[in-house]
Amino acid sequence: MIEQEKTLTEAVEEALAGMDWLKPADDAMVQLVRKYAAVLDDSSAPGTDPAVAVKALYLAPHMTRALEQLGGTPTARGEFREAEKAERAAAPVEDTLARLSARARGIAGSQGAVEEEDGEEREPVAAVAAGPGRPGRARRRTR
Questions:
Q1: Alpha-carbon distances of 141 from 15, 82, 108, 126, rounded to whole Å
Q2: Are 15 and 67 in contact (CB under 8 A)?
Q3: With 4 labelled, which of 65, 105, 127, 138 sits at a CA distance of 20 to 30 A?
Q4: What is the pLDDT of residues 91-132, one digit of tens each?
Q5: Is the separation of the CB atoms in 76 and 69 below 8 Å?
Q6: Which is more confidently placed, 128 or 60?
């Protein structure tokens, strides 16, 4: 659960403590993230000049990118990509069979052009006629 009363610096320290994959080579980036958090915290202190506070907010995307490079965001850890991948992989065979079945029904039930997935209309294979004066040579009509 996310606590509301934490400072950004405290939240960053907790996040960094949970990143057991960090190495000494990451120390400069870790220090940069800490500095960004401290500046952002200071800019939101009571009595801070509003212009200074607004300027400090420009650091937020830089801090986010630094955290991302350290693996400190859900996107960087692949959590969202993994969820999307799991959804797509749930029923690929069934989806493909349903698409092929619908396409086959469209071909078998029509004598005219069939609309493909790309929006193009093409004549079904059975309806493709040989070119004029060229028996046995099929042609495919596309737009």
A1: 60, 41, 18, 13
A2: yes
A3: 65
A4: 566 677 777 777 777 765 554 555 555 666 555 444 444 445
A5: yes
A6: 60
